Amino acid sequence: MVTREGILWLALVLPFFGSLGASFLPVKARNSAAMLAGLIALAALALIVSLYPAVADGAVVKSRVEWLPSLGLNLLLRLDGMSWLFALMILGIGLLVVLYARYYMSPNDPVPRFFSFLLAFMGSMLGLVVSGNLVQLAFFWELTSLFSFLLIGYWHHNESARSSARMALIVTAAGGLCLLLGILLIGKIVGSYDLDIVLAAAEGIKTSRYYVPALILILLGAFTKSAQFPFHFWLPHAMAAPTPVSAYLHSATMVKAGIFVLIRFWPVLAGTELWYLIVGTVGLITFVIGAWAAVFQQDLKSLLAYSTISHLGIITLLLGLGTPLGLVAAVFHTVNHATFKASLFMAAGIIDHETGTRDLRRLSGLFRYMPYTGTLAMVAAAAMAGVPLLNGFLSKEMFLAEALEFRDGSLLDTLLPFVATAALALSVLYSLRFIHQAFFGAPATDLPKQPHEAPFWMRLPIEVLVLICLVVGVVPAYTIGPVLDAAVRAVLHENTPYYSLATWHGFTRPLLLSLLALAGGTVAYLLLRTKLNSAGGAPVIRYFKGRRMFETVLASVIGASRRLEEMVGTRRLQSQLRILVAIAAFAALLPFIPAGYAIGSERITPVQPGFAAIWVVGALCAIGSAWQAKYHRLAALILMAGAGLVCCLSFVWLSAPDLALTQLLVETVTTVLLLLGLRWMPKREPQQWRRGRAPRSVLFRRGTDLALAIAAGAGMALLSFAMMTFPIGHTISRYLVEHAYAEAGGRNVVNVILVDFRAFDTFGEITVLAIVGLTVYALLRRFRPARESVRTPEQQRIQNAFDDSRSERDRGDTLTDYLLVPRVVMEWLFPAFVAFSLYLLIRGHDLPGGGFAAGITMAIALVLQYMAAGTRSVEERLRVKPLSWMGAGLLLTLFTGLGATLFDSPFLTTWFRYADVPLIGKVPLASALLFDLGVFLLVIGATALVLIAIAHQSIRTPLRRRDMELISRSEGEV
Amino acid sequence: MEVVLALGIGVLTASGVWLILRPRTFQLVLGLSLLSYAVNLFIYAMGRLRVDAPPIVGADGTVDPAALTDPLPQALVLTAIVISFAMTALLLVVILASRGLTGTDHVDGDDE
Amino acid sequence: MMNGWASHLIVAPVLLPLLASATMLLLNERQHRTKNAIAMVTVLALLAVAISLIVETIDLGFSGGSTTRVYLVGDWTAPFGIVLVADWLSTLMLLLTSILGVAALIYSHARWDRAGPRFQTLLLLQLMGLNGAFLTGDLFNLFVFFEILLAASYGLLLHGSGAQRVKAGLHYVAINVATSLLFLIGVALIYGVAGTLNMADLATIIPGTSGAELTLLQSGFAVLGIAFLIKAGMWPVGFWLPRTYAAAVPPSAALFAILSKVGVYALLRVYLLLFGGDWGWTGNFGEEWLLYGGIATIIYGTVGILAARTLSRVAGYCVIISSGTLLGAIGAGEGAVIGGVLFYLVSSTLGISAFYLLLELVERRGSEASVRAVVEPVFEDEYTGARSLAGEDEVGVVIPASIAILGGGFVFCALLLAGLPPLSGFIAKFALIQGLLDLRDGIAPAIWVLVAMLIVSGMATLIATTRAGIDLIWTPSERQPPPLRLAEAFPVGLLLLVCLGLMVFAGPVMLYMDRAGSSIQDRQGYITSVLGAERASKEERGPRER
């Protein structure tokens, strides 16, 4: 025994599974795909139909699954009369469309994909109408937009399909986002997204201060989807889709989603002045414009598209009136329109299919070729025109009655009947034109194909729909009556009005008006038919080209943002750094604005003249290097080194021997590096400005930079000074000092911190070194010096010339002799360096030194060899495998740290004891020492790698033109 | 002393900032190095200044935290020194590569 | 509180990648099969570790215990040593990182790991840096791990060399070196006032500070904040981001997707912990700046994404938009929104990562191969045989119907980034807006703007992606679509699948996110568990003999 909830769920998921299945079918499997789709639609339809008893008596089938309870978003299926009616349309027409599409689609198209999308759309649409949770509704709403996009773009090989699909997606998805926002507001007002709760809270919503934004947002959603003015323009272009899609999405279902939402929210939003004003007006305008435009179309499908817009306008207008009867009429007309419009689209599709054209001017006298289709089309068109004994007539009657009934004295109200009649006359006109132009008159001569009747299975869907039109038109009370009643009751509950579904109400004013419309339309057609064929688009609104506007707007938005991006963004490094410095300075300043700048109470240590003196030098060096860096790189470099040296000295002075030592070593290596780098820098002559001096813009930029620099400097100075004047309060280093020796067994607290307390930092720091080493290695492997910087330096050239001139010497000898002494010295020094670095390594734990310092020293020793003996010879003599050293170093530190875990202590927990070693004396055998050894290895590896890699470049050949081109091409200039 | 050091930091920072705002890659490198000097001193200064009080415990292991300067900032500076050294090296190499590939030493890789 | 190997799980995400990459350093490039194996095993192990950690979190969390697990590196108690902290947020980020790691590594096998030496090593080190940054509970240690992940990202960005990358790299390195200096200044100021670096310790000390010292402290945090914001790519300090990411090879870019989120993470962590809760946060120190900055960033991202001419730029601006959204939402200061923020963070990171992997397949130029010229060796252990990619292009299973798969993947990515259903992007955006719209005491204009920008930026993303996607995928071209390899399709599929999971299991996921959100605002809980953590060895350690 399956529960009703179960049936509902099954009906919802079936289409999606079908879609998934169809997407896996082979590309050419047209029949199996169609079969699958048909069966799915049929099954779902049967399931929904079987639920009718459940909703007939105003009851509701609800089933809820927790999805995102914390935010009130749950999967809540809710089937009442209204959603049942829509579900019926979606699945019923869906089934017919599938059948039709089977014969319409060409076997060369990837038909399974088509059916896959179609089924997915069907499912989304179904999900939309049975949503009991508003967010879920928005969810499925966006899905319908998505699949309509895919379906419109199905023939994406032609341009119009692509652009139309995109336009439809953007318009409807934007509307969807608005809808979501509106729904969120509603949810916030009510405190829940559950439809029932929301419906119950109608008053609260209408009186809320957020009613207006919520209303507008939701209407935006509905109007975009239902192609209401001014968002109607996407619909005619959506006709680029295969005709089955137009018949399904753009007449029967998707465009009705907006209507559905209006109906759903009708109880909570409608009835206010604003609602009447917006919805009523928009509906009326759409109604008229649609009808007017439809009259002048030459393309069958666009004629139908505009008439669809116009009919959607009627429905919106009816809902806008805000009266119960209006709602009834709206729902009724929705159903009727779906039936006759779908059949008309299918008929148009057949004509297109059989004759190869949709141009009304070329079509003529088809009736003799396709009598069945002709008859069917005629009946459907008559329904559209509102001829008695057809369903269209009934809803039109209701509409006119409503138009006449309603009284509030406003301009809109007084105009309504006349405008309505006129517009209806127009719809008669275009219906007539459609039929007469296509099927009557002399047989067409210049058709691409020789027309003949469509196959039975292709006509069947139309026959079914037209039959419905007839039956409903003749005996409404026994056919649509109960269904309509159930639907309307589901929305209006107790205040459902009295209305009679009958073909004959006697001679009423509505009847009069509709007859007037019929007559007027016919007369107009007889007068204008020839003119209309020569008309190039609708007068007046021809100039309102929605699509072009859309494109223009989009284009200008994009153009504007391109210009804007240039303005608010930059790609220049200088500007970015400028902003960075400025922002940082500002941020640092911010807290001082309210608080003001104050210094602490701590007494200031008296200035020692020596210290001041070295800093005078240091400052001069810094400024000098800033001054010289552009044209005299070497000088600037030396000056910078000077500044660095002053830092070392002040570290010594201020009792930081470790810092001094490390700084000194790093200093050396950095300088060497930069020296090696200088070799590849282009020669720079002082810039020649026109009119002798730099232009004002440049001077201004320099001025601002200078100001910025001074500001930053002042800021740092003030910050540091203020900090130094505050008494040092609570600090963790007290603990560190106390425990350094007792628990970590090191007397040099700084080193103990590095290898024990905060060994993890050191661990990370050497990893950074390793990574940089790797990067340098990877980068320089591709490095090719620029062409002009490769010429051998002048001095060398002179020497070579000298060598060449002497027969007994060969090239490079002078250079070798030249460097003989230093080379010998260096070679002798090498072991000394090694010894010294090892010493630093061992003593590190107790006195200044440590793995890093030792490693750097070692690297320096290596580099000195390079400088003295030349790259080639060194590379021949000692085999450097820096990567392996780095790996070894990392592993050593890692395993030292991991050793602790064996004793169930955390990573990097140290262990140590002292041992007496002859000569050296008492040395700590600390695991920290092993750790330091690892650091040592890695530092050698990384530093040597960088230095050597750069030094090595000198013996490389420049990049050949060809490679240069290769590279620039290969970047693919993103 | 504090004043002198603060001024020193200030001058280093100022010249560093000036340099990193210049268009040439070499100026950039120098600027960043100068800035890193400044920042190292700055970090150090956060532990306040002490003369002749290196954070090294006496050979007998007797400890008087008050008598020693704050070792932690020194440790931080050491880490910072190493890292900034690594970064300088990397930046230099990138600059050389850029010079080799674009043919200019402008920071944007193109002379306008 | 050491109980066997399980307790070391917290440090594993940092050590495993290092162990692997150190080993790989010892292998030369001829042994790349071995190295591939090592790398793959490592990332999978990382994934396993992350999963087990997060499972542990959930168990603890729903059994009512404290989820904040502390690891005392070197067995020194906080605040004296360095602590690693695994809690709701950090374990979540670990999992996210490891997923991206797996995807990027697999993808790189298709071709990119051969565009230059040592790609996988750098990738692993990148993961190490990320994991460390997410785990550490020490401000300076955070700096160190930032440097690790930055250094690795330099390597990954420059991987494959070429003028574009080097130019972008130069900017990237320069800006980040400057940023690191800011970071140091900030940390230094904080230490100068508070005398400690441990975050929990800071959180206890800060409320006690006042007067001029507090001003200095706040100044320090402001500078630190700027450093984080630069990493997050906030306008106007994020201009470097799109160009940099666009220049990187796809797998690198896919990892970079989370790089910008590290800044956001640090902001969340540091600011909610140190200024969150009762004081500061409500006294909004820098909070409104965050909000306005976030809005400005989204606007810039929107403008940029509309202006973008190539997919890679589009993706870059998606990163900007995502950062802006996060910053704005955090700045909005609604405690309730943090859960949504985290959901959005995860979802958008995955989406962007997938997008980066995909867009290269969509707009493939396939000429990387020609870059590599044979070069004489610099070092012994360098392999310089010409391993031209052209020869190896055929490796890997080539899957049919590539265009359809590309199209599908692309559509999903676009929807994900634009915040449309059916993927998690929709839920994320919904959760954010839902959290932001708090009608109880009216909606501030700034919040309205923020919400509007969320919608607008979504639309802009949709416009941009459809434009590019339609041109590249739907427009018929004579160019034969390149064969799609399984190694390339799988990671994209994996990431999208995770997003699908986020969508389907939105309830439980959001539950986790909310718990994470409230946990980072529960300062006291964090403080007690970190400062209360006990050493493994109770007895005083010391020299056994003198």
TrEMBL record, chain A:
Domain NADH-Ubiquinone oxidoreductase (complex I) chain 5 N-terminal: 70-115
Record-annotated MrpA C-terminal/MbhD domain positions: 619-683
Keyword field: Antiport, Cell membrane, Ion transport, Membrane, Transmembrane, Transmembrane helix, Transport
Domain NADH:quinone oxidoreductase/Mrp antiporter transmembrane: 131-406
Family matches, as Pfam families: MbhD, MbhE, MnhB, Proton_antipo_M, Proton_antipo_N
Spans traversing the lipid bilayer: 6-27, 34-55, 75-101, 113-132, 167-190, 210-235, 247-268, 274-296, 372-394, 414-435, 456-478, 507-528, 577-599, 611-627, 634-654, 660-681, 706-728, 762-780, 818-840, 852-871, 883-903, 923-951
Compartment(s): Cell membrane; Membrane
Residues of the MrpA C-terminal/MbhE domain: 701-797
InterPro entries: CPA3_Na-H_Antiporter_A, MnhB, MrpA_C/MbhD, MrpA_C/MbhE, ND/Mrp_TM, Proton_antipo_N
Membrane topology: Multi-pass membrane protein
Entry keyword annotation includes Electron transport: no
Na+/H+ antiporter MnhB subunit-related protein domain ranges (all copies): 822-944
Name of the protein described by the UniProt record: Monovalent cation/H+ antiporter subunit A
Gene source species: Novosphingobium rhizovicinum
Automatic annotation (TrEMBL), chain B:
Subcellular location: Cell membrane
Membrane spanning stretches: 6-21, 28-47, 75-97
Keyword Metal-binding in annotation: no
One Pfam family it belongs to: Oxidored_q2
Swiss-Prot/TrEMBL keywords: Cell membrane, Membrane, Transmembrane, Transmembrane helix
Family: Belongs to the CPA3 antiporters (TC 2.A.63) subunit C family.
Name the UniProt record assigns to this protein: Na+/H+ antiporter subunit C
Organism: Novosphingobium rhizovicinum
Biological classification of the source: Bacteria, Pseudomonadati, Pseudomonadota, Alphaproteobacteria, Sphingomonadales
From TrEMBL, chain C:
InterPro entries: CPA3_Na-H_Antiporter_D (IPR050586), ND/Mrp_TM (IPR001750)
Ranges annotated as spanning the membrane: 6-27, 39-58, 78-107, 119-136, 142-160, 172-194, 214-241, 253-277, 289-307, 314-332, 338-359, 397-417, 446-470, 490-513
Domain NADH:quinone oxidoreductase/Mrp antiporter transmembrane: 137-442
Key words of the record: Cell membrane, Membrane, Transmembrane, Transmembrane helix
Subcellular localization(s) per the UniProt record: Cell membrane; Membrane
Top-rank taxon: Bacteria
Alphabetical list of Pfam families matching this protein: Proton_antipo_M (PF00361)
Membrane disposition: Multi-pass membrane protein
Keyword Transmembrane helix: yes
Protein name: Monovalent cation/H+ antiporter subunit D
Protein's organism: Novosphingobium rhizovicinum
Family the entry assigns: Belongs to the CPA3 antiporters (TC 2.A.63) subunit D family.
